[in-house]
Design a protein that fits this description.
The protein is mostly helical. It has 3 helices and no strands.
């Protein structure tokens, strides 16, 4: 029943395509965070360059800039992993679709699917580290305020 096989192949190919959509949503969220952090980094750099900026504040700004740079690095790796996951899912869907003509391609679908899932897991891990770094950035800012009050 070739028609029934085609339906099964199309049904199997839908899973990676749905994961492409889910991964795109994750990419969008990370890109938004990246943009807001880069804007904050630019604002801090501008404040640092201001001749009226106090020396103590500059010390705090340097600490914050290092933290923001670390956060941007983590997000950059997360986005790279997510784009690689999208590629793996797309190739997986193509291979699943092509299995009607080439049975040997079917063996590659599960490893590709698992690669995509592992890449998403890596990206999520990067995001968790970025969140931890975000907490440190806030602590730096608050320590500057505490120091100024005392």
């Amino acid at each position: 029943m070739p028609g029934n096989d085609a339906v099964q192949v199309l049904t199997a190919a839908v899973t990676p395509v749905v994961l492409v959509s889910a991964t795109a949503i994750l990419i969008s969220g990370i890109n938004s965070r990246y943009i807001s952090i880069s804007d904050r980094l630019r604002a801090l750099a501008h404040e640092y360059r201001d001749p009226a900026c106090a020396r103590e504040r500059r010390v705090t700004i340097v600490r914050e800039l290092v933290a923001f740079q670390h956060r941007m690095h983590l997000m950059s790796w997360a986005v790279r992993a997510l784009y690689a996951a999208v590629a793996a899912f797309i190739v997986d869907a193509v291979i699943i679709s092509a299995t009607l003509w080439r049975e040997m391609l079917a063996a590659a679908t599960l490893p590709l699917f698992l690669t995509g899932i592992l890449l998403i897991l890596f990206a999520l891990t990067c995001q968790l580290f970025e969140l931890r770094s975000s907490d440190r950035t806030i602590a730096i800012e608050l320590s500057d305020i505490d120091r100024r009050q005392n």
